């Protein structure tokens, strides 16, 4: 009799213990399904194209264009001859692989990109380099206008991963 009572007690405990999991499971399932529905609704809303006005970036006269002065050294010896006093910097990147990747993307478009490193270890990706500030500013403006004519700069930003309004002129210190 004692064994029967223990067996029945264990069976009841087992039923109570595992029987209570089922409502939790269905509660979790309903919350999960509700979250999935919201996510689906948000995806449908966000997939609707949103028209935004085209971004434009300022074009400066060379006299009002500011410059940053830095001591930089070419990363590759082959870039040393192309590095002049004033350069158009399109990106400042902390990691060399990212800088190399951006350099390669712009070189595929026909630019002679120079990769330099400053004293703090940051890589500067240079798209053009000249002896005068005026030439560098003119080239920067020309390239920005070219990309603006091709389409919305936001699209171009997503293609290259860099915003065009962050381009700047570097004055090389020796």
SSE inventory with pairings:
Blueprint: H1 2-19, H2 21-46, E1 67-74, E2 86-93, H3 96-108, E3 114-118, E4 123-130, H4 133-150, H5 153-160, E5 168-173
Parallel strand pairs: 1-5
Antiparallel strand pairs: 1-3, 2-4, 2-5, 3-4
Can you give a write-up of this model?
By secondary structure, the chain is of the alpha+beta class. Helix content is 48%, strand content 20%. It has five helices and five strands, in the order H-H-E-E-H-E-E-H-H-E. The protein has a five-stranded mixed β-barrel with strand order 1-3-4-2-5. About 8% of the residues have low confidence.
- CATH level 4 superfamily of the largest domain: Sporulation related repeat
Strand content: 15-25%
**CATH top level class name of the largest domain:** Alpha Beta
Tell me the helix content.
Answer: 40-55%
Fill in the CATH topology of the largest domain.
Alpha-Beta Plaits
Integer tally of domains:
2
Task: Report the end-to-end length measured between terminal Cα atoms.
Answer: 99 Å
Compose a concise summary of this entry:
This protein is α+β, with helices and mostly antiparallel strands and 174 residues long. The protein has two domains: 2-46; 67-173, Sporulation related repeat (Alpha-Beta Plaits), CATH 3.30.70.1070.
Descriptive terms for the model:
174 residues, alpha+beta, five-stranded mixed beta barrel, Alpha-Beta Plaits, single chain
